[in-house]
Amino acid sequence: MAQSTVGTLLASTAYVWYGKVSATMKSSRGAGVVSAFILLSDVKDEIDFEFVGADLLSAQSNYYFQGITDYDNELNLTTTDTFENYHTYEVDWTPDSITWSIDGVSMRTKNRNETWNATSNQYHYPQTPARIELSLWPAGLASNGQGTVDWAGGLVDWNSQDIKTNGYYYAMVKDVNVQCYNPPSGANVTGSDSYKYTGLGGTNNTVASTNDPTVLKSLLGTGTNMSADYASAVSSSSSASGSKTATSSASAATSDVATVPGLTGGGPGTNGHNGDSGSSVSSGSSGSASSSTSTAPSSSSTGIGGFSQGDGAKQGGGVPLKNERVLQGSVFAALVAVVGMIVL
What we know:
Elements (H helix, E strand, L loop, with lengths): L7 E4 L7 E8 L6 E9 L4 E7 L5 E7 L10 E4 L8 E7 L3 E6 L2 E7 L4 E2 L4 E2 L6 E9 L7 H6 L9 H6 L5 E9 L7 E2 L4 E4 L9 E4 L24 E4 L5 E4 L4 H4 L23 E5 L5 E5 L33 E2 L16
Parallel strand pairs: 14-16
Antiparallel strand pairs: 1-12, 2-7, 2-13, 3-4, 3-12, 4-5, 5-6, 7-8, 8-9, 10-11, 13-21, 15-16, 17-18, 19-20
């Protein structure tokens, strides 16, 4: 995480609907610097391990229901130096309870029956399919709310030893392991390729496990219109003089849609350049022809990554985590850019 960036975010390529997930990692350090290992659903159910760089002897456990802020949900778990030492942080998530463990030792359990909210008449308990995320972010920015800055231990020091030595703050992840559980009793299961919501409640009884497709035809596609595609980039027309010119038939709106989010340009072009910046060919009275290709970008880079859809195979019992695997490496350095989340 270098200065003037918003940190790094990595997300799994698939969703977990209850299971045991662990990460063996070292946190970052320093006031205002926050490392995180979380489960996050599309309706903002969330289960967290967070590490505030100003307190290296604690791992914060937390959970949210549909993004509703409740500061009583957080509990600090005591451990040894989270920057100097690798620890294995584990979330064991079932329909009835969540257990946070460190190095195989259970540190906290929250039961679903303890989360009843009489006002909304429902359990404020994480209960919808979630992706696994690892992140490093600058909570201690002057532009953030004072409460966030205070929680993060103060403003980020951009002249710290880590910045002077490396040019960035970093965390390291050795591995991530995932074990998926069966769907909850009574779940609507008609397949094992995808999860979908059947209602607006955003609760586990509105989630179905199906064989419906998940791959968008293009970046214009959405969950309600998966086959949306770009207009034809080129069409031919004839001029009154009889010369032929290749012109774009793509609308301006289509041209503004990035092929690779975060890169310049839009439409189905190459390397982020316009799809409607094709070759133009003209012929004079002699019949000779020349061609030119425009590669000028139509817009500036946003620097923000986007989403790409993928597929995978079944593994294990119950509804599988598609593309399930152990993510392993000697070190993972959370460096400079925001890594675009890859969504299944």
